[in-house]
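DM from R.C. (forwarded with permission)

"hey, sorry to bug you on a friday — could you get me a structure for this? deadline for the figure draft is monday and I only need the backbone to look sensible"
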Amino acid sequence: MLSFTYNLGSMISKDREKTKAVSLRKRGSSYTQILKQVHVAKSTLSLWLREVGLSKPQKQKLTERRLAAARRGGLKKREMRIEKTAIIKDKAKKEVPKLIKDPFWLAGVLLYWAEGSKQKEWSPSEKVAFSNMDPDMIFLFHKWLKSYFMDVQLKYELYIHMSGDIDSAKQFWSNLLGIRKDRLLVYLKKHNPKTTRKNTGKKYFGGVRIVIQKSTDINRRIEGWTEGVIEYLK
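My reply, with the result:
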């Protein structure tokens, strides 16, 4: 008898919750808003509301709410990114007075300032990437990375025209950088028979792009160094 009474009470309670959920949905509430007032599993709520239709204004209202929530989330993420970037760059600038006494460090910073990938407002998560065809530049920057950023994952990309000697190019860059040939990811450029480019022949080895994986914050640190050098010299 007690079990029957309990089950009956539970059924009545669920019916009340269902009625409330349907009423809220018809007024244009989202699932998230309903779940805050009706404490059931989302799967149960979906089952209850699958036949509850919404008017066009109600659908539009829900869409506007979702978009507003997304904008608020985006703004919050942007604020957090700006704050984090400022902290990283400020710390990097404070390192400059000591590091600037090292000519090799300064050479690498200026080299990256000239040829490296920079973070922009429309691309704030840019990784550290350096591209060039000059073997000396690639060698110097690679050595600089190894000296000042240990335990980072490097990716090597070889960009070469289809008419070039790919095997010779891979061997050349492999020897220069001290890496296995299979670490060079090859990207072929289409050959133009009418080209007037001068970088052809046996000494043409294409260009290399060195990328640090997961290096958004490292890029911000290097940018802080660059700004710090200018401020220091001024």
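R.C.: lifesaver. DSSP finds eight helices and four strands in the chain.
me: no worries. The CA atoms of residues 120 and 195 lie 33 Å apart.
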